Amino acid sequence: MKRFIDLVRVAVAGLTARKVRTLLILLGPILGVGAIVAAIGINESSKGYLKAQLQDLGTDLIVANAQDSLGGFGQTPRIPEDATERVSRLPDVTSVTGTYQISNVVTLPFDAAEDYYKAFPVPIIATGLNLPETMEVPMVSGRFINKFDYEQSARVAVIGRDLADEYGYLRGEQRTISLNGIDYGVVGVLDWVLLEPSMDSAVFIAFSTAEKDWEIGNQDPTRLYVRAPTNTQLVAEEIPTVVSLGGPDGARTSVPTDLLNAESQVDESLNTLTQLMGGLALIVGGVGIANVMSISVIQRSSEIGIRRALGHTRTTIAMQFLFEALVVGVLGGIFGALAGAGVVWFTSWSRDYVMILSLSSLVGWSLVSVAVAVASGLYPSMKAARLEPLETLRLG
């Protein structure tokens, strides 16, 4: 026991005697373990965030886009207006809203901004009256377009939340915006639409107003948003047939949450690649440990010679350097795991992710760090053990 305590004391003294060198040796496993833990943790946390979004959004919204076969040559394909009613009568459908995006309209919060908004136009969307219900998005200020606005073709508009922030809109403020020189009163602000981010910077007007002011021809939409709480995939398959009254090419449907769900199920090859890159960093760190400790053997040759002359065996000398490598691996693994966990926490906090960090992963990669460090210390320890007392006089 006394011999083991002496060995520990000598090894610790060897590490603390040259603090800068020890710190440089530690950087290898710290960076390797920290990189692996951070990369995997951020990846898992982002997946957790997406899964939480899926829970909030639901998976029952369907988007149906008009196909080219529904439009004439050179015309924008559109879905017949009466198709909206047909889709709404499907057994599992609770809400349907048609939209049409108007082009070549410059939206201005004030005249001085004309050059900017010509370069970066704001989307103008003609819509049905129940868009907030279909998208399940609340109003954060005011109201949405109502039946009176539709019947009177009133020049009122609702703006997305990002656009409201960009315009400096204040809650309850009486505000007008200019659409190609025509003033529209802003009656409300729609909250963020997570499944259709483009709506956050859009202006919404009634179909009847769009038909009067912008000559869109009719009130046929180019896109339908359909809410089907049950049998969503089946409804998505039925919609093209319902739109075209029996043909297969009535519309192209998709379920936006399918994309999020696919994104949340990150390919395992990405995790494998992350682990391989982190493992490479650990190997590089291990090479650094072997290199620095080999140089340390030469620098400490006098110390090794004196200890050999005092009766220390080759095994004792080798165990000293192996123990030093073991300490480096343990400390590097612990600090690396803590650093990686800190990066995951900060990233999750700054991006509102759901922090997911596996304790087994922290322990596992810390143990890998120890293994790499000990393996890297084998050659220097054997080199130190083979030194003869007389040879140390030449080296030292």
The quaternary structure here is single chain
Please indicate the percent range of residues in DSSP E strands (runs of 2 or more). Answer: 5-15%
**Unreliably modeled segments:** none
Shape, per Cα inertia axes: elongated
Structural class based on helices, strands and sheet pairing: alpha+beta
Q: Which series of helices and strands comes N to C?
A: HHEHEEHEHEHEHEEEHEHEHHHHHH
Average residue-wise pLDDT: 81
How many structural domains can be distinguished in the coordinates? Answer: 2
Separation, N- and C-terminal Cα atoms:
31 Å
* Number of helical elements: 15
Helical content (DSSP H or I, runs of 4+): 55-70%
Largest sheet: 11 strands, mixed
Number of strands: 11
What's the gyration radius in Å?
Answer: 34 Å
Please give a quick description of this structure.
The protein is built from 15 helices and 11 strands.
Describe this structure in words.
By secondary structure, this protein is an alpha+beta fold. It has two domains: 2-55 and 266-395, no CATH class; 60-254, no CATH class. Helices cover 58% and strands 14% of the residues. Strand 7 (175-179) and strand 8 form a beta hairpin. 37% of the residues are buried.
Main attributes?
alpha+beta, eleven-stranded mixed sheet, single chain
Layout of helices and strands:
Layout: H1 2-17, H2 19-57, E1 61-66, H3 81-88, E2 95-102, E3 107-108, H4 114-119, E4 124-127, H5 131-135, E5 139-142, H6 147-152, E6 156-160, H7 161-167, E7 175-179, E8 182-190, E9 203-206, H8 207-214, E10 223-227, H9 232-243, E11 251-254, H10 256-264, H11 268-299, H12 301-309, H13 314-351, H14 359-385, H15 389-395
Parallel strand pairs: 4-9, 6-8
Antiparallel strand pairs: 1-10, 1-11, 2-4, 2-10, 3-7, 5-8, 6-9, 7-8
Helix pairs in contact: 1-13, 2-10, 2-11, 2-13, 2-14, 11-14, 12-15, 13-14
